[in-house]
Amino acid sequence: MNTTSFKQSFLTPRDMIGYALLAAVIFVIFPLLLEPFRLNLFGKYLTYAFVAVGLVLCWGVGGILSLGQGVFFGLGGYCMAMFLKLEASSPENTAIQSTPGIPDFMDWNQLSALPWWWEPFSSFGFTLFAVIAVPVAFSYIIGVAMFRRRVGGVYFAIITQAIAAILTILIIGQQGFTGGVNGITDLRTLHGWDIRTDSAKTLLYFVNGTLLFAVLLAAQFVRRSKLGRLLIAMRDQEDRVRFSGYDVANFKIFVFCLGAAFAAIGGAMFTLQVGFMSPSFVGIVPSIEMVIFAAVGGRLSILGAVWGTLLVNWAKTTLSESFPELWLLGLGALFIAVVMAFPNGLAGVWAEQVEPRLMKLLRRDSKAAAQTTPAE
Amino acid sequence: MLDVTNPNYVLMVEGLTVSFDGFKAVNDLSFYVEPNECRVIIGPNGAGKTTVLDLICGRTKATSGNVAFKGQDLLKMREDQIVHAGVGRKFQTPSVYEDLSVFANLELSFPKGHGVFGALFFKRDAEVRERIQEIAEMIFLGDQLTQKAAFLSHGQKQWLEIGMLLIQDPELLMLDEPVAGMSVAERKKTAELLNRIIADRSVIVIEHDMGFVADIATRVTVLHQGKVLSEGSMDHVQNDPKVVEVYLGH
Lengths: 376, 250
Description:
Chain A: It is a multi-pass membrane protein. Chain A: Keywords: Cell membrane, Membrane, Transmembrane, Transmembrane helix. The complex is a heterodimer. Chain A has 15 helices and two strands. The two termini of chain A are about 45 Å apart. In chain A, helix 2 runs parallel beside helix 8 (about 200-225) and helix 3 (about 70-90) runs antiparallel to helix 5 (about 125-145). Chain A is globular. Mean pLDDT of chain A is about 90; it is low at about 370-375. Chain A is mainly α. In chain A, about 70% of the residues lie in helices and about 0% in strands. In chain B, a hairpin with a 2-residue loop joins strand 4 and strand 5. The radius of gyration of chain B is 18 Å and the shape is globular. The mean pLDDT of chain B is about 90. Chains A and B meet through helix 9, helix 10 and helix 11 of A and helix 2, helix 3, helix 4 and helix 5 of B.
């Protein structure tokens, strides 16, 4: 057998078609078809896709189910919100406060000075660094504490869920420092550039889409590397990997931190596009919703995660606009349906049902074409 | 005190004991493995055979005793460090990565790129591909490299796992029932394969099939209730009255 046939390829032609299709939808079709309000809404959905892509690597490929990805989405989003809030709280804007120059919610909570750990967030450079570094450092601590002790499976999922609950309670309880249950709101400008206008939102939509593609390609690189295959191997036969000379915990920590970094970028872009960040994006419910996005898309498919996120969120908006009380039931039913009937989600349906039929059609077409050509 | 640098032995196990809630699965066990020796461990169910391998490769922590491999104290090392020191372990049930191809299964065992970033930027170069091809042919899977491991027969999975160990080129190879569940034809091929791969390394094999044991063993150790009951050549242990009693009952 010719051994050169085992060359690794980063993108197969099939992958490339998938990426091109998604790029066309995100960068051309949505902006052309949707009015600015709807486009911004879809931009918001796409920020969740960052989390879903991270979950594909952690959960689908690596078998590490985290029910607390909202924590990292939230931390990324809060870091960005702190910067924007400080800019919005200039002494001129807050002249009516008893202490001008600090965020409004601090003033309402009788704080008379900016807490020291808020100070660095007046620098945009530091904020960009913190958006990634804070969630990654936090996930690293969790990862080391859990994976070094060989905590995994359901126990890990429960612990991450508990962390999401704890962080929500902490943010709500410390409202003088965090804005409490309302979150950090009334964000206005980025370096003097008003992010509330339609044109700014459209531009941010494109920035978001570009970042999403960078994350997708990074995920694709990991998936196609030996590390990607190791993750699959660890999911199925952890002991065999360990006794093949790998320190399994390090690989789990890595992919968990990577998922956290992806989620954090999504969180920061959420804050920029939606204009606020609140604890309702940190807790258990959003964290589980994000797992559902990945499951609906197909937990093994990087592109599927994006489609799943778009589909579920579009359905959520459409349904909850007309039948608000039915949405949660619908979401639950959808999750059960996916687990029972389509364990590989949209990506599985595409690969097993749509693609073979499409191929058949294409072949028939080309055959028909071949038959008609000579007659012409 | 154990002289861990004795060059006459690859592996020295002395006074090895492990206690699970007071039950001593392995009790004050000592044995020595020489270079290029094929040691077969036999014994009735529950004698502690698999536990001995678990203790050597770090899967189970010993309660007391010493395990020295080429002058290194294995009991103080992590599982992956023990592998890097040169000890390979095959499990009783075939442990292969079912969702990956035969090629990828072997590739993950190739002794390079074991760190996180080493694995991320690992290159499938010509050396890797040729070595995998070579091993695959040795384990009779040369034309199955693109096959998903899930679709292999039970015997082929056993071979694949042996191949995954071979590619690591360990100095000490530990095999737990390598012919269990194989057909007669597969058994014969496996004995041939093992005879070829044990030529230049030390091997510890756990096996029940006496015909197979007679085929490959340099020396045989009989375990009973966590202790060595008898040790020596196949002929010696087969004629040992203590062994006969344990196997045939009172």
